[in-house]
Amino acid sequence: MTLTGNSPKILVTGGAGFIGSHTVVSLVNAGFEPVIVDDFSNSERSVLDGLRAILGRDVTCYPVNCNDAAAMADIFKKETPVGVIHFAAHKAVGESVAKPLKYYRNNLDSLLLLLELMPQYNIRNFVFSSSCTVYGQPEHLPVTEETPRLPAQSPYGNTKSIGEDIIRDAVHAQIPVKALALRYFNPIGAHPSAQIGELPLGVPANLVPFITQTAAGIRASLTVYGDDYNTPDGTCVRDYIDVIDLADAHVQALKKLIESQENSSYDVINIGTGRGETVLNVIKTFEQETGVKVNYTIGPRRAGDVEQVYGDVSKANRVLGWTAHRSLAESLRDAWQWQKKLSSQG
């Protein structure tokens, strides 16, 4: 799609990150003009090169911390976006346990600032990056949006719960913002072009990049934490959603808000595939799709791990007209192509 100067601008905080960068591509494909705000504290500037390769042009990017009130006000004034998609946040669970104040300060202050600035510049539409971590270990599966939230397992997870509460209370107080919090499950995959994908800093905290790095010989072995859970093969169950499907969900959420005639609103929506996969099945599927064996060992259970969680996504289907299309096999193939490109670049 060829964009014109009249394409509505969308501010994408954390737009150089894993989910953010893929959402930038989806926004362009949908006729929007994304504007990235990212201080590159948890991403790489090379992502901008990848976006240029995919889109055939540059994307406006401000290397700004979202807690910088003066800089953010200047961006709002200059760009006049019609909406904001808020990804920017510290996100390492382990680090959040060790440095909780860092996480509360960064993740909550940036949200508060955006909600304060948006009405000042007549920006109404807000999509918040939330998480299925708010459900903890649920008593019943699949979880729906009405499933009670449980105490977070980490300060990072708690910032998502508190963030939802902040938005809800602000809307209840009638600030002129329409907001959707997307509670998504486990994003995986990469763009099929292998130009952008997940770039974990240091040792990966997520399963799929650990699988691909082990397959590539970067990691000696992958540890599967526990094989004695009450699941089909004893390993933990998660809902793995392709990052492109997830990016498209953000665009659909944004369109829904823009079309809405309400002055102020708030809702939460699960974004996932609606089915769970065990850790061992993800490894097995990767091996089948790539022909590469993964060296893994079974270790003891890891403290804080949820046994299984996957979501009921019928609300996303109904409200957003969105559904996940890409299979686990496709996601793993794309993740492997991305890893091979990274390895070839050293």
Automatic annotation (TrEMBL):
It comes from the Bacteria. It is an enzyme of class 5 (isomerase). The keyword Transcription does not apply. Signal peptide: none annotated. One of its GO terms (molecular function) is UDP-glucose 4-epimerase activity. Pathway: Carbohydrate metabolism; galactose metabolism. Keywords: Carbohydrate metabolism, Isomerase, NAD. Its EC number is 5.1.3.2. It catalyses: UDP-alpha-D-glucose = UDP-alpha-D-galactose. Its cofactor is NAD(+). Residues 11-334 form the NAD(P)-binding domain. InterPro entries: NAD(P)-bd_dom (IPR016040), NAD(P)-bd_dom_sf (IPR036291), UDP_G4E (IPR005886). The keyword Repeat does not apply. Belongs to the NAD(P)-dependent epimerase/dehydratase family. Homodimer. This is UDP-glucose 4-epimerase. It comes from Spirosoma flavum. The lineage of its organism: Bacteria, Pseudomonadati, Bacteroidota, Cytophagia, Cytophagales.
